[in-house]
Design brief:
The chain contains three helices and six strands. The chain is of the alpha+beta class and 109 residues long. Strands 1-2-3 form a three-stranded antiparallel sheet. Strands 4-6-5 form a three-stranded antiparallel sheet. Helix 1 crosses helix 3 (84-94). The longest helix has 15 residues, at 49-63. The two termini are 26 Å apart.
Amino acid sequence: MMLKARVPLPIVTRNIRRGIKCRRCHAFDWQAIGGSIGKCGRCGQVESVQRIAADYFTRLDLLYPGDIYKRRDIMDHLKLAVSEYTLQKIIHANFRRLEHRKRIYFFSP
């Protein structure tokens, strides 16, 4: 069985909402608590910020494979107010630099 190359899906992008969605109640009401955990404002579900960011970009990579991101794009997608230290941990764990360029990354968990 041959595997086909991944290509972007024909999806209307205006219907996609950016931000972290709660796994339990499906609300877009996540808030960062401290530096490494996040909490849903509606149901109280608590999870690691790094884990939910990795899950978010894994799903986004299925829609747009090979997409490149700048630091501000990553923050814009997450819609969470995280510290610089937490952002660096998310980037180093889930992204790789594009050649030798600074602050331009591609998702590679």
